[in-house]
Design a protein that fits this description.
seven-stranded mixed sheet; about 20% strand; 28 helices; elongated
Length: about 800
């Protein structure tokens, strides 16, 4: 069991590494992940009391995580602002006493020195956290960033006290105070920026209404939304938001669900439809029964999921963690070596001390520790705004690396809203047997058959011992024996299906339809043929996946003709038909040997393959089993969200690499400069400048991560083909309009014919729009398109 804790007192990556080491030593703990960004920790195994005690012993604070305080004001940021304000006020007169001679002021050495000492001591007291945390960490032999700041400031202060006691020499009280003030400036900017990384989620949390109109004893009452309980009924009028997740009891409404799914188009809701917290009723009036409230709503689960993902360690963070574990001790060693080295080289003590202090204060483990988690948090928030939920930090990072995308057909590539196109009855018992079996299944095909029979007021046979075999069919026991329903191959294993039945099955499947046979123990009672339509964005989404360098593979339990037709229309070259859930799992496992593989599906029969894939992706209206098995959940029932998830993940990966590069580059360049390696060439940095540089380094990392909020992940980009001769050619597109395109079969014929033309890279045909969008590598005359369309028996209208 995973338990979440709040951790206080951490200031850098070395702190989080120290907490992690301490907790992993606790008996029974199997894993521990500490997040510097969210100041939280997730631990598997062990006793909560022992874990908290271990964290406290390591010098930090810990307590069990309190969800209700998740979005409370950041007290640490407020405290930093107060410290900064007091430090700045004290620093101004101190700088005057320190540099007054520049302005003509003539202060006595002891007067100026004592005033500077008092002001520096006051600033050090205001910022005493650096010293209490830093020296305590040193005593525990796990130094952190505060240790570096404390050592640098204390060295300047102690040296200046010695000079003041001697009565002559240069004082460095201003350096001691300036170091603390500038570091506090950086910490304040960092804390403010870190707070902004969760703005998207805080915005989501604020979308829920404060009040609701509930119906009690037949009367409408306005109550705080927090008082609604599961089972209560409430009403929502046009312009109001839904205060809880529920199901429509009566009425109709047009609902804006963009807060959850990112989809701008409103969704019509009627009796029996589900509604979600924070969505907006644009028009209409509905009475709703509350199903989920408080932390159980979809909105709360989304927010929790994103925060939990940010609290986990992404694979890219492991490099930074390994460096952070030895970073601070190494810096202290380099500072001592710098001091001794310059003294041995014959430089005076002031020069050597200044170089040593510069090394201490320029080094920044914070940037290393924040490089990955801030990008993960902002990326997760951006995904949530667009209806894309990454369950873990690893899934957010890995999604952008996939090279193979396995797609389920029904409900994923197609709308899943099947309709019965043909019914053939061989027995008077057909309808009653079909209704008895299909009405008990949630499969889209069964739902379509059941809905058709319900419209015809069909009667149902009483059955018992009902059982469903995912990917095959269903069976149950009636008063007259066993009844079977399912795909032809399944039913054929129970009863004879030759002759007229075989001919009907072959005819309907050749038209790309899915056939369901109904049988008893002796004979076939009848069959139903259902058809499904491709999602409007299926073709464009597959095309974009190809442009992103991802190979699309179609996996389906449907018959080969139906699967082949769908694959041809969408431009998928590799497809597998007639698969059982275990067959899909085997194929996914095989694909994994060829590259990082994702599986996108929505049904119970997809759960094994979703688990088997490197990344499992559940499509919006999928079953709970599919969603639970997935690593990524797309709330929008759209394949374009699949492309958006990949684009977002790649943007996050780029951002992480930029952050890590900056963190390593800054320290790799800054430490030698501070140590005075380039001083023979006139390049040397003062401790004050080094403190300013350090204070801005982690702020830059956080600011860079915030750019992810502006990354465009929706909509196709212009396609550029890179060639070996360094030329770049843009693909041209034309939209052909034609009459007579009636079905997916028509789409497949036109697509195949157009793609045989020289210069046509790809054709995307839509019978719903009556168009064919072609991508061209060179200009083609409209006359050629007209000849192809008319030759196939359709009427060419225009091409533009």
């Amino acid at each position: 069991m995973t338990v979440k804790f709040s951790v206080t007192g951490m200031s850098c990556a070395a702190c989080s590494a120290a907490v992690e080491r301490a907790v992993k030593k606790v008996s029974g703990v199997t894993s521990c992940s500490v997040s510097l960004l969210t100041n939280s920790m997730q631990v598997e195994g062990g006793s909560a009391e022992e874990i908290i005690a271990a964290v406290i012993k390591a010098g930090y604070g810990a307590k069990l995580y309190e969800a209700e305080k998740e979005y409370s004001a950041d007290e640490e940021t407020k405290c930093l602002k107060r410290r900064l304000a007091v430090s700045a006020i004290l620093l101004l007169p101190m700088m005057y006493f320190s540099m007054g001679h520049i302005f003509g002021a003539d202060f006595k050495f002891y007067v100026s020195g004592l005033l500077q000492l008092l002001l520096a001591a006051a600033i050090m007291f205001v910022n005493r956290k650096f010293f209490t945390s830093g020296f305590a960490s040193l005593a525990r032999r796990s130094p952190n960033m505060d240790s570096l700041v404390a050592l640098g400031s204390a060295a300047s202060f102690i040296y200046s006290c010695a000079v003041l006691a001697k009565g002559e020499g240069h004082l460095y009280f201003d350096s001691a105070a300036m170091i603390l003030t500038l570091i506090t400036v950086g910490k304040t900017l960092e804390a403010h920026s870190k707070g902004r990384t969760t703005d998207a989620l805080k915005g989501l949390a604020k979308l829920a209404p404060d009040f609701a109109t509930v119906v009690r004893d037949g009367k409408e009452m306005r109550v705080p939304a927090a008082e609604i309980a599961a089972g209560d009924e409430f009403v929502v009028r046009a312009g109001e938001k839904f205060p809880a997740d529920g199901i429509v009891v009566s009425g109709r409404a047009s609902v804006d669900e963009s807060a959850l799914t990112g989809e701008s188009l409103p969704v019509d809701k009627a009796e029996g439809d589900k509604l979600f917290t924070a969505t907006l009723n644009l028009s209409g009036f509905v009475r709703v029964k509350a199903l989920s409230v408080g932390e159980d709503t979809m909105l709360s689960k989304i927010i929790k999921l994103v925060f939990d993902a940010a609290a986990q360690k992404a694979p890219a963070a492991k490099i930074a963690d390994r460096v952070a574990a030895v970073f601070v001790p190494s810096v202290i060693g380099i500072a001592l070596a710098t001091l001794c080295g310059w003294l041995l080289a014959g430089k005076d003590f002031i020069f050597a001390l200044s170089r040593g202090i510069s090394v201490l204060v320029i080094s920044c483990p914070c940037a290393l520790g924040l490089a990955t988690p801030v990008a993960i948090m902002v990326g997760s928030g951006a995904g949530a705004k667009n209806g894309i939920l990454f369950k873990t930090a690893a899934s957010l990072e890995q999604t952008g690396k996939i090279s193979i995308m396995a797609l389920d057909k029904t409900g994923t590539l197609t709308s899943g809203e099947m309709t019965v196109s043909d019914v053939v009855s061989y027995s008077a018992d057909f309808e009653a047997a079909a209704y008895a079996l299909e009405s008990r299944s949630s499969h889209p095909v069964a739902a379509a058959v059941s809905a058709r029979l319900k419209e015809q007021n069909a009667e149902s046979l009483p059955v018992e011992n009902y059982e469903e075999l995912p990917g095959n069919g269903i069976f149950a026991l009636s008063a007259h024996g066993m009844l079977y329903a399912g795909k032809p191959s399944f039913v054929a294993s129970k009863v004879e299906t030759g002759g007229e039945v075989a001919r009907d099955v072959q005819r309907l499947e050749s038209e790309g339809k899915t056939v369901v046979l109904i049988a008893d123990e002796k004979k076939i009672l009848g069959l139903s043929a259902v058809s499904d339509t491709l999602k409007a964005d299926a073709q464009s989404a597959v095309a974009e996946l190809k442009q992103l360098g991802i190979r699309a593979v179609l996996l389906s339990g449907d018959n080969e003709r139906a699967v082949k037709t769908a694959a041809q229309i969408c431009g998928i070259d590799e497809f597998y038909a007639g698969l059982l859930p275990q067959d899909k799992e085997k194929i996914v496992s095989k694909l994994k040997t060829q590259g990082l593989t994702a599986m996108a599906g929505d049904g119970i029969n997809d759960a094994p393959s979703l688990k088997a894939a490197d990344i499992g992706i559940a499509i919006g209206k999928g079953t709970d089993v599919a969603i639970d098995s997935a690593d990524v959940v797309l709330l929008r029932d759209s394949l374009s969200s699949l492309v958006s998830a990949v684009k977002l993940s790649r943007a996050v990966l780029r951002n992480i690499k930029q952050n890590l590069f900056w963190a390593f580059f800054y320290n790799a360049l800054g430490i030698p400069l501070a140590a005075g390696v380039f001083s023979p060439f006139g390049l040397k940095l003062s401790p004050t400048f080094c403190a300013a540089a350090m204070s801005l380094s982690s702020f830059c990392v956080v600011a860079n991560a915030l750019r992810l909020n502006f990354v465009k992940i929706n909509g196709a980009k212009s396609v550029i083909i890179k060639r070996s001769d360094k030329r770049e050619d843009f693909l041209m597109t034309k939209t052909i309009h034609a009459e007579g395109i009636m079905c997916p079969h028509c789409e497949a014929r036109i697509k195949q014919a157009l793609e045989q033309l020289d210069g046509v890279k790809q054709a995307v045909v839509s019978h719903e729009k009556g168009t064919a969008v072609v991508e061209l590598s060179k200009e083609i005359e409209n006359g050629k398109f007209e000849a192809v369309i008319n030759e196939l028996g359709y009427k060419f209208i225009s091409a533009e």
